[in-house]
From TrEMBL:
Signal peptide: none annotated. SUPFAM superfamilies: Calcium-dependent phosphotriesterase (SSF63829). It comes from Streptomyces kunmingensis. The lineage of its organism: Bacteria, Bacillati, Actinomycetota, Actinomycetes, Kitasatosporales. It holds the Pfam family SGL. This is SMP-30/gluconolactonase/LRE family protein. Keywords: Hydrolase. PANTHER family: LACTONASE DRP35, LIPOPROTEIN-RELATED. It comes from the Bacteria. InterPro entries: 6-blade_b-propeller_TolB-like, SGL, SMP-30, SMP-30/CGR1_Lactonase.
Amino acid sequence: MPRPTTVLSGFAFTESPRWRADRLWFSDFYQDRVFSAAEDGSDVRVEADVPEQPSGLGWLPDGRLLIVSMRDARILRREPDGVLSVHADLGDRMQGYANDMVVDAVGRAWVGCFGFDLMGGEPLTPAALYRVDPDGSVTVAATDLWFPNGMVITADRALLVNETFGNRVTAFDIDESGDLVNRRVWARFGEVPTAREFAQVMPQLVVSGDGACLDAEGALWIADATGARLLRVTEGGTVTQEIRPGGNVYACALGGAQGTTLFACTAPDFFEEARRPVREASIVALPVTVPG
């Protein structure tokens, strides 16, 4: 099993790692900031302050950064001068916080949401997935997803979505207009939980897929938020590799100079009340064989 190396520490809750322009980019939920750093964790930079809590990251074709602002359900856009503007406002559509995001080559963004008040203890309800077009217009792309979370777009234009509380990865094909078609289960780890209260759902989860990234062979690395492990999964649900980095893990990204470093976001838990006052979250790096 690869041994993890801690490359970044002293954060509140790291999430949504991305490798771009020879740097690791990531959000810190509870410091309300987006950071970037060199591969070895040096040269840490604050890339954006997001008072309403940052999550998913992506880039438009012209290189402008998009950031999910969770609490007010907005997508922010960082202009070349560093100023943040509102790219899209989803606040009148979403239930619960906005969450992770993936952006395609033409600048269309798909954004998930909680679907319920997770921190407030509401019962679980299914949620929608939204598409934000380059002009900022918003469309409901899919419904009835159990906490749509980490997403990737494959080489053959399939959108894979982790359903954190659904024990599965769901796939859609992206047609030329950006609509999601041919919905199917890409990987099933168990049945959809029958319970709806959070404490009762937890024992029914086999894999609670949080963040994810894709490797060059089309396998999906999944951060199992309740299993304290990283899983490499192929279509159909076969787990080809399991790594336990030594703590709870919530997101991952492939990057580094050779593309064979798996970066993983770790923390004792994800609850805001416990995480915001302290700096116990880290990002670890693990060597893998297949690049991103």
